[in-house]
Amino acid sequence: MLAVIQRVCSASVVIEGRTVGQINAGLLALVCAERGDTVAESDRLLAKILKCRIFSDDQGRMNRSLQDVGGGMLIISQFTLAADTSGGNRPSFTGAAAPGIGRQLYAYFVDQARRQHPDVQTGEFGADMRVHLVNDGPVTIPLRIAPLAG
Prior knowledge:
The protein is of the alpha/beta class.
């Protein structure tokens, strides 16, 4: 699975003029399931995101996780993270999971996030969304969790 996480002062997602998810300080997580991904990759990605130490401690060092600071988490599905531009100028998205599997893994990811973190908001899988954010830092980190061998 793929994700891009951004430390934010605030973030929201709007669908058809209606705000469907909104957080104050915390993380915006853009999440993409790739072909071959399972709940195992989803679990590992969520653990990495929740424990990633990208928030400042009292000395100003990035040494605290989302769980440490109690910030919000806004999760947005984004299959375009799987874009492959090696064949030309038009991206190919064949590396993304099929829509049905992507939807299932996104729903699972969100469900698990809500079980493990108190403030989780979301967009809507497959919707045309407007994502608004104030990036804090800016801090933006790409993550990839590959299937385990064997």
